[in-house]
Amino acid sequence: QVQLVESGGGLVQAGGSLRLSCAGSGGTLSSYAMGWFRQAPGMEREFVAGISRFGATRRYADSVMGRFTISRDNAKNTVSLQMNSLKPEDTAVYYCTAGYSLKPDDYWGQGTQITVSA
Predict the structure, then answer these.
(1) pLDDT tens string for the chain (118 positions)?
(2) What is the distance between the alpha carbons of residues 71 and 12, in angstroms, rounded to a whole number?
């Protein structure tokens, strides 16, 4: 079973940028579509971005379109989320996911906190 570990979370001012990374172990990430979800306090988890197995197709939530970019490096068994023009409403725990659709939710990392200050 694939295991996912996120890194790169932290505190950033509004308008700033962060890059999240996710490393896979126990499996080959190229076997899966990969994605990112997030959960803000008191809110349900929501889809953020997804990428197909070899990167040909990407999907984004409307709220992050044009600001976030998902990418993957199958040779390194990693997936990344570049987040630009961050807003306070982007504050959440971000989860790396793997699965079989462009909103993959079969396997989850432990999550990493992103806090965007106004």
Answers:
(1) 899 999 999 999 999 999 999 999 988 999 999 999 999 999 999 999 999 999 999 999 999 999 999 999 999 999 999 999 999 999 999 999 999 999 999 999 999 999 999 9
(2) 21
Q: Are 77 and 26 in contact (CB under 8 A)?
A: no
Unique residue bearing structure tokens 């306070």? 88
Cβ atoms of 109 and 97 closer than 8 Å: yes
Is residue 74 within 8 Å of residue 18, measured between CB atoms?
Answer: no
Nearest to 70 by CA among 98, 89, 44, 41: 98
* 63 CB-side CA count, 13 A: 11
| Ramachandran angles phi, psi of 31, nearest 5° | -80, -10
